[in-house]
Amino acid sequence: MERSVKMEMQVSLRRPATQPPTIGIRRLPVEVVTGVLATLDSTKDLISAIRSHRVFFNGFHSYQQRVLKGIMIHMIPREILPLAIATHEAALLVDIEIWEEIQPLILSLLSIINSTSPESSPLYPRVTLQLATALEKTHRMVEYFTNDYVASAIPALNDLFGASKGKNVSAVERCRLYRAFYRFQLYCNIYGRHAIEKTRRAVRRTHAWHAATYRRSDEDTRRELACFFHPWPPWMNEQLACVFEYLETKLSVVFNDVAAHDVEWGWKKIDWVSWTVAVPTRRFMLLHGIPFLHELTTSSDFQHWKELLDSAYMQRRFNASVGSSGNPLEDSLRRCRNQEQLDVAAQNRRQTGEPLLGEYDVGMLRALVPARGQWEGGIDDVTTLAVQLWKHAHHYRRGSQMAVFLDRLRFLRETGYIFWDGPLVRDSNAPDPRRKVRNPAWNPNRIPRRDEVQQQTKEMHDSWKIRRDIFLEGGSGYWAPGSGSRVVYQYL
After folding, report:
1. The whole model's pTM is what?
2. What spatial distance separates the first Cα and last Cα of the chain, rounded to whole Å?
3. H/E run at residue 489
4. Out of 121, 173, 248, 491, which could bridge 112 as a Cys pair, Cβ 3.0 to 4.6 Å?
5. 423 cis-preceded (ω within 30 degrees of 0)
């Protein structure tokens, strides 16, 4: 596969056979030509330019690194590029169960995040056209979800705060969103693949395929927390929680549609209602990552949805050490306080009687920033509105109780409150948004009422019976209550 891609690249970069009659372009200095190439928006545009004229062909091959790095930085913000490269490198790891394979990659990433010269890091590789193309492919998917997230979160934000924030977010806000999506994909490329592979082995080892158990050892959990979560400030882990819930919502729309209408899934009795079965199943599927979710959510073909979900579906029970969600990422997010932050909280408790987080001043907040991360200043300074809103959203938490991903803040996370800069409210008479996030009274109870769940469960069980009979008669495809017009029968 890799060889065919390289051959395709080589063919696409062959010297153009004919030249258009452009005398003036031949007189341009090579520095000007490569400068133009380095500002192109994509590798596709680069290949088109190279094939259009010998001047561009020669300029690219004379200054290949300059051109490719220019396109990458033009396409991916400099602050995000190390994380994008690490995400790509993680996908290439052969044995994700060997700690010695994972640790150097994560430590190299942490060493250059927010660095003024990331190019000096071993993680920053010699750029090839193949690498630039792969990075572009992933970044376009991250851009897609970022734009969709903004489109759904901003209206919710404006409704909550009475604000008038537009959907044209700033470069800083966009960087925060990019970083959260890339961190999600980096997690999937390492720990998500690990969980999926262990579950598949458990399924193969047991005759009761529905009873396969995924276990995560305490040592794996500690390493994951120490390596992937603890070096990041809590508000950045809250950003990761925001995109996790958003992606779950995107997946749920497709999953629920297939589970409620596909004939075969009805025969298998795949649950889409119960919080103890459906939610863990959907959240475990998230570990297949952004490429899987992108293909799923950009398709409108029901049969294609089913094929993708079938490839990712593994019915199994989860060990309690993973958490009730069935997703190790969610379990880690709920447990990602680190010892350094707890030590700071303990010191504050001795000095001031452990104040509430809402009472932390700038100095106390800065003390919570992990030493291994270079987060002070820039887009993540503790004085930004995003961090201040996080502080006030957790106002009633003690430092020693510091956490992210609180259930009562789900509706707040749907607004993306942790990503935006101010001012949110233009009307001077409007309530301070910091008070708004501090008061849980506005947060509606989003869990369906018991009678609603009972009715949905009854309808689900009724549909299972109907679809089972259809399946046993040779039927397949899309079924809807009261209509079997899209069911296909295979007669022997």
Report:
1. 0.86
2. 39
3. strand 487-489
4. 121
5. yes
